Amino acid sequence: MSNGRLIRGGTVVDSTGMHKTDVRVGEDGTVREVAPGLVAMSGEEVYDATSKLVIPGGVDAHTHLHLEVGDLRTSDDFASGTMAAVMGGTTCVIEYVTPRQGEDPLAAVEYWRSLGESACIDWSLHATFTSAVSSSVVASLVEGGITSFKLYLAYSQLAISDREAVQMLFAAKEHGAVVCFHCENGGAIDVLIARALAEGRKGVPEHASTRPAILEAEAVNRVCSFAEITEATVYLVHLSSALALENMMRAKDRGVHVLGETCPHYLWLDRRKLEGEEGICFMCSPPLRDKSDQDQLWNALASGMLDTVATDHCPFWTADRKAGIFGKSHPADNFSEMPGGLPGIETRMALMWQGVRAGLITPMDWVRTCCEQPAKIFGLWPKKGSLAVGADADLVVWDPNRPASLDYQSLHMATDHSPYQGWRVEGWPELVLSRGRVVVHRGRFMGERGVGQFVPGRVKRVNPEGF
Ligand SMILES: [Zn+2]
Q1: 310 CA distance to ligand 1 centroid (A)?
Q2: Distance from Cα 271 to the centre of ligand 1, integer Å
Q3: How far apart are CA 152 and CA 277, in angstroms?
Q4: Portions of the chain given CATH number 2.30.40.10
Q5: 103 C-alpha vs ligand 1 centroid, how far in Å?
Q6: What pLDDT score was predicted for residue 462?
Q7: Pick the CATH number of 5-55+386-401+424-445 from 3.40.20.10, 3.20.20.80, 2.30.40.10, 3.30.420.40
Q8: What is the pLDDT of residue 1?
Q9: What's the 441 CA to ligand 1 centre distance in angstroms?
């Protein structure tokens, strides 16, 4: 329980527009009333949000707060990663349970649920399958509130065959689940990597040249074809290229139930980052692309063709990146032995706000893609991603002009580098509430680990596109 609270004088933003209105938060941590000119009741704390924006807390639908890659593990955990998330205005994360090949997916889910107990904010889970599972496994996961599954078409230790993918899409359709896909053609990429290494091309920039956009686009097209024949709903994670986007949009146009996600790093960074001294700290898959890809991704966010922005938060210490996935006993001697993944859980809301400042998207697009749509697609809405009466009071008072440094020293993620080192942005949270409790105020963390709750996804979700 917390005191009742009145957020007064701010401008509430949602996907429909900007409204000058007050928000009353009840003692039970839910939104009680949204209307202009509300008068404080006795015992209620009043927060003056004049000249600030008031938005639902960010929902980050793609995180890896625990992930083992060979001998390495991601550098954040649920406690540190969710603390960093909320410092940047995200109040709910959906983490990918990623079992090792052959591991029982239900046991992996149980393990991740125990890890989640240290979270500072609410969280949900997606399950990953490394091989086809029975319809009864899908049913029991859905029953337990895990209503989305991930399948990889790349990485030999995770990838699933086309045959298994189609089987799982039929099962997902039967139980109302969403299937998330990592779209890259793993087999073709393996050959390109082997040829590069045989020719002595071992440097970090080869990470991008061996994972060309056309192989992402091919996988997107394949997944959309599978979605079309099974009538299942698919969600394409981390789209990075114009070619992939075109194939998704073509499928959308012919009525395929496909939703698309991109990440801030594909919108703001390009492949030249791989060429520098610190190139190793910019490795992710799909790789960073070109400026022309960024332009198309921004256009697709503005037009509503791209549905969400998530982080794919997957941080590593620089020393671990250099040591490589086989650990210190066998230091990496080429790009293929270095882990991929960027930190980003804390900087997403601010980086997307810079898109608003630059005129690339509207404030409504910002809230739609970063808060509302992720909650709707994964069955958390309107409890999350909304400030409607009855919603959880996960609320951010956003100061559109508050300056912030994106240097790793100023941030709270467990990393010793930042993809945006040297960047100074304007726009950062002033106040963050999680179920009505103050978790962040003016850059100070006031929350605690272990209070975040598991939020079950519901399959009877409000479908963003009517399917
Ligand atoms: Zn990921």
Answers
A1: 10
A2: 19
A3: 30
A4: 5-55+386-401+424-445
A5: 19
A6: 42
A7: 2.30.40.10
A8: 52
A9: 30
Q: How far is the CA of 149 from the centre of ligand 1 (A)?
A: 12
CA of 73 to the centre of ligand 1 (A): 14
The mean predicted confidence, pLDDT, of the chain is: 96
pTM as predicted: 0.97
> How far apart, in whole angstroms, are the C-alpha atoms of residue 162 and residue 219?
10
The number of beta carbons lying within 10 Å of the beta carbon of residue 397 is 22
If one looks up domain 57-377 in CATH, what number appears?
3.20.20.140
Nearest partner of 2 among 454, 451, 455, judged by Cα: 451
Q: Which of 379, 372, 380 shows the shortest CA–CA distance to 352?
A: 372
Task: Return the DSSP state at 39.
Answer: P
Q: Residue 182 C-alpha to ligand 1 middle, in angstroms?
A: 8
Q: Note the pLDDT tens digit of each residue in 395-438.
A: 999 999 999 999 999 999 999 999 999 999 999 999 999 999 99
* Ligand 1 centroid – CA 229 distance (Å): 26
